[in-house]
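Supplementary Note 3. Input sequence used for the single-chain structure prediction.
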Amino acid sequence: MRAPVNTPLTETSSPNQTYTERRAAAEAELKRLDGISARYANLRALVFTAGAVVAGLILFKRLPSQWWWAVGAALAVYALLAVLHHQVFLREERQRLYVKLNERGLARLTRGWHDFAERGERFLTGSHLYAADLDVFGQGSVFQLMNETATRAGEERLAAWLSWPAQAEEVRARQGAARELRPRVEFRQDVCVEARTVAKEKADPGLFIQWAESGPSLASIRWARPVAVVLPLVTLSLYVLGRLEVLPGALWWLGLLAQLGVVWLTRSTLRAMEEKMSAGEHGFVRYAPVFERVERERFEHPELKRVQAGLQHEGEPPVSTHLKRFSWLYSFVEFKRHQFHPIVHLFTLWDVHALFALERWREKHGARVRGWFEALAELEALSCLAGLAFDRPGFLWPTVEGDGPRVKAEGVGHPLLDNPVLNDVELPGPGSALLLTGSNMSGKTTLLRALGLNAVLALAGAPVCARAFSLSPLQVLTSMRVKDSLERGVSYFYAEVQRIKAVLDAAAAAKGQAMFLLDEILLGTNTRERQIASREVLRLLLATGACGGVTTHDLSLANLAEEYGGKVVNMHFRDHLENGKMVFDYQLRPGVVDTTNALRVLRMAGVPVEDSEQPPAPTESRLG
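The predicted structure, written as discrete structure tokens, is reproduced below.
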């Protein structure tokens, strides 16, 4: 095993400079390797041509037959050059991966990350309490921005962290590990490159783990194991003794016939095990370098040491050694693809030896395989948190502690926007709420999403877009992007009612340790019933002890601030006219909004509406 290494830290360089320099270095190395590859190609062509010319001269009697040794030497040299050339190809592929990783890094600094193919849609479910509303998964999501995993298991671990809040102690452990990994760009990229070198598509260890944890596959032919050792030796002995005329010469055919019988009797069981194992392998035989790279890194944080310790049991070699052993054993199974395999198997019972050896490996190490890949998945997810911190140096590590629910954010902005407007928001304790009013397009919904998505990031262990951010462990609950469903026969209004019921149930189940974010609820009914229902929904949520925010155009709800003795606070956004155009500053202000802009928006869109009626009294009006 190689000595532990300390990866060079990238602290002083900006993300843009780091990725640009690393991409340039990889491109320079790729150019150098292209030159070496061209020389190997020329040498192979020269050696092949020389061997072919000598062979032709021998065949046409221009050279004596003794020159066949030169042809053999040329073939040997050609084979050696081919092996060396292949190694150059592999090094070139690695450098291409480094170029791609650093180009992705540069894309994450701009809006180029919106073009990343892996958006995590498979993790989206209609019943999730916030993922669809807060752009956790899907196009333009935080998962699309953060995901730099190389295995399906790592991708699933990151998705799980973004889908379910962790407790304060776990959040602090993840933060500490991610802080240490943040400047280790080289290490994080090395792990990605090693994993992506062995598999073009993201490898899913699920089937491999399933095979490793399965019961004995060869129990029904256990008798074949000693037979496979003894019978070929007996057959060989009979052949030798027959040639020496000690025994009848034809007697060895009986041994060969017996071996054919073993081949016939074991064929189904061996084929079943091979198919089961091969379905789960998918490149994992070559994963030893990935684990070896992790094993070599010297970590300081206890969380990273814990993850690394999961790759080696006391008194045993590290995981990479076990996987190298598996790779070597599996290469004997892959010999089945060779054209001479049937003959070799008949004479040596090759498959029996190979598959029983793998069965022994499974019996010894299979129960630990899940832990190995879970440790790797956790390291990948931590690297994604570290990557976000590195790419967004303006983000900070939030404080997660104390009783709640409570959230305090100073200068909070939406983490997916390039230049978000920052606002201060506080939900000081149980039963506290913000009632947000404001004109259309003024920023009400964006503020809710900024608050919610930053809370999700904080409780996943990631940094957040804010100058200061603290919260208690809580469950985020949202109702924003409600959709009707023709397939299920559900109207928009009833879909919204179902969503609100789910939010209420989740808040009760969390015993009030929740933050609700509701955007313009119950739009699918008349004004009077909407006002009554909205007040009741807010009352029921606050009764659970949850805190949260609600956007509304119904100014009658502003009276709730008086009813709840200051626990419900009115805040608003507004716009103003400059040179006949609406201008938004997206700044949160105290109190209830006193302006409207629906008619102006319609006129801007080319709809020739007229303001023919006087607006109703504020306490009965609904803003446009």
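The radius of gyration is 34 Å. Residues 616-624 have pLDDT under 50 and may be disordered.
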